[in-house]
Amino acid sequence: MKRSRVLGITVMMIAAMMAGCSSQDSEPAPDVLASQSSVESSVESSVEISTEESKEESPVESSVESSTEESAEESSSEPSEETTEQSSKESSKQVSEQTSRQSSEQSVQKIIKVTTTETVQESSKPAESSQPAIAGTPWQEEFVNAAEKYYNERSSELGGSVDMMFQFYDLNKDGMPELLMSDGEYHLSRCRVLVYYNTKVHETDAAGPFGKIYYNDSLNQFGYTDGYFGVRSVWIGTITDGQAQAVLDASGAWDASALPQGGTVDTVRNTVNGRDVSNQEYVQAVSGYLEENGSLRSDWIPLGRQYTYSSENVKNAAYGFSNE
């Protein structure tokens, strides 16, 4: 309020002085000059008074200094930015290490779980088949090649595609399977026996009709039978030295009622193992193998048509061979 009054008086005095000067064209009178000097002195003292009073009334600087000191004290009591950042980094590092450790433990548990699962899956797979008695020979590949050769030859003989099927079976219980190749199921179809011997596959003379041969486990023999118009042939044999060896090769009149008109058991040639015999001798030789209808007895199991032929199927069956 004091500062405002001083400034108001000063302004009024200056205005009066200027008004006096503007009313005269000549130089100002001495009393006017004195008045001006007095006014100027008053203005200077008023300005000084005003400045001192404004210093007393405005505690800006002291407030700023006080505020600065208080801020410094507050900032000294709070953690610095560097301390906060370092603490944050340490906390982040601890969290990261803990997360990494948990992730590692989870990964280990996952690996253990996967390994356990794979082990269970592997143990559930069928065990590899036992190796044959003759080890160290590539009999599987030899059979694959021999089967392909036989298939091509038989297809050429029959003039086209063949309903070829096959089966591996150990016909003499020596641990090495024989390969049975069947080209159909009709009367003239044959089931050929192929034998692996001395690192090679041999095609035997044994060839059952209707695309099958029969095996008797208790006798360890295989064979087949065929008949027409009351006459029946029987072949029973074993595998010896890579060949089919006949135990019984007989032919004769089995069913007299089925013989052609005018035929009798005596007019039919009866043979046993290459020699001529009476019908009675023939019947005696074969009756231990045949049912009344002329088929092999029920303890002879049919073989030869287990899988459809292809080189890949033969290979898979050879490497996975088992008589069971």
Cα end-to-end separation: 124 Å
Total number of strands: 12
Give the uncertain stretches in residue-range form.
1-11, 14-84, 107-136
User: If strands are numbered along the chain, what order do they take across the biggest sheet?
Assistant: 10-9-8-7-6-5-11
Q: Give average pLDDT, whole number.
A: 72
Count of helical segments? Answer: 7
Helix content: 40-55%
Please give the largest β-sheet: 7 strands, antiparallel
Based on CA atoms alone, the radius of gyration comes out at: 62 Å
Q: Which descriptor suits the 3D outline?
A: elongated
- The topology string of helices and strands comes to HHHHHEEEEEEEEEEHEEH
Q: Beta-strand level of the residues, as a percent range?
A: 15-25%
Tell me the count of domains.
Answer: 2
**SS-based structural class?**
alpha+beta
